[in-house]
């Protein structure tokens, strides 16, 4: 039976299981807020569980969200099974869907200042995406080799994260995000200049670990730049 999104459909988001996606999104965003990743309503997280996509509301303080605030979308039909009447779904929804279309189970969007600083340190490459590249850091081993590939990058592998230009509206980033995903099929992240980053993974655990590894690498890379140390 198809659920009627105009009804509350509370059962889709209310669970005593801490690993239920509606509970996890709230918990993750509370932790991400403390890292400065989702302050001032910016950033967010979405989870795909089977055919259900769990999406946070737009424009709310992401660290204060409750499971009852979550939208639930049916992935195959892209129709909402649950729409809390007081909110709109996150403006990042089409970008999260781009990651889910490519097999992700979770997508995290942060406004981390380290990510933003990296986009300011890598020059614009007209005609194609610019790309942040770094090598010879142990934490690179925290990033997967790529979609459909087993295991993580090695210490001697080069980490490449494409950078796309920001747009006035979040949803207008979708086309360039998808282009970057096609041009860099092994990437699990895309930086957005002067804005932040989208990071995804096959599971919540992998998306979170990759987001943490990348943020660590970005911070280190900014400090390396200040000390005139090379990234490659
Ligand atoms: C500080 S506003 C930031 C938004 O424009 C956007 O970039 C963002 O990350 C969050 O969008 P939202 O629709 O609240 O989920
Ligand atoms: Zn944003």
UniProtKB/TrEMBL annotation:
The keyword Cytoplasm applies. It catalyses: 5-(methylsulfanyl)-D-ribulose 1-phosphate = 5-methylsulfanyl-2,3-dioxopentyl phosphate + H2O. Keywords: Amino-acid biosynthesis, Cytoplasm, Lyase, Metal-binding, Methionine biosynthesis, Zinc. Its EC number is 4.2.1.109. The keyword DNA repair does not apply. The active site is at residue 138. Substrate binds at residue 92. GO terms for cellular component: cytoplasm. Its main location: cytoplasm. GO terms for biological process: L-methionine salvage from methylthioadenosine. Pathway: Amino-acid biosynthesis; L-methionine biosynthesis via salvage pathway; L-methionine from S-methyl-5-thio-alpha-D-ribose 1-phosphate: step 2/6. It holds the Pfam family Aldolase_II. One of its GO terms (molecular function) is methylthioribulose 1-phosphate dehydratase activity. Binds 1 zinc ion per subunit. It is found in: Cytoplasm. Catalyzes the dehydration of methylthioribulose-1-phosphate (MTRu-1-P) into 2,3-diketo-5-methylthiopentyl-1-phosphate (DK-MTP-1-P). Belongs to the aldolase class II family. MtnB subfamily. This is Methylthioribulose-1-phosphate dehydratase. The lineage of its organism: Eukaryota, Fungi, Dikarya, Ascomycota, Pezizomycotina.
């Amino acid at each position: 039976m198809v659920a009627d999104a105009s009804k509350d459909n509370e059962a889709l988001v209310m669970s005593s299981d801490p690993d239920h996606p509606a509970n996890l999104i709230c918990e993750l965003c509370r932790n991400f807020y403390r890292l400065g990743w989702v302050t001032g309503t910016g950033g967010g997280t979405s989870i795909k569980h089977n055919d259900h996509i769990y999406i946070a509301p737009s424009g709310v303080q992401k660290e204060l969200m409750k499971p009852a605030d979550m939208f639930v979308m049916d992935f195959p039909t892209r129709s909402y099974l649950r729409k809390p009447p007081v909110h709109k779904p996150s403006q990042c929804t089409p970008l999260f869907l781009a990651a889910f279309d490519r097999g992700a189970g979770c997508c995290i969007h942060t406004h981390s200042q380290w990510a933003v600083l990296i986009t300011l340190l890598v020059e614009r490459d007209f005609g194609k995406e610019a790309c942040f590249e770094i090598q010879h850091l142990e934490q690179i081993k925290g990033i997967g080799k790529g979609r459909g590939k087993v295991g993580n990058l090695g210490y001697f592998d080069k980490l490449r994260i494409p950078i796309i230009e920001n747009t006035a509206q979040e949803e207008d980033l979708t086309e360039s995000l998808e282009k970057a995903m096609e041009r860099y099929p092994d990437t699990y992240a895309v930086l957005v200049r002067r804005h932040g980053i989208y990071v995804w993974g096959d599971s919540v655990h992998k998306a979170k670990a990759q987001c943490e590894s990348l943020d660590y690498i970005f911070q280190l890379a900014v400090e390396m730049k200040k000390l005139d140390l090379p990234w490659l």
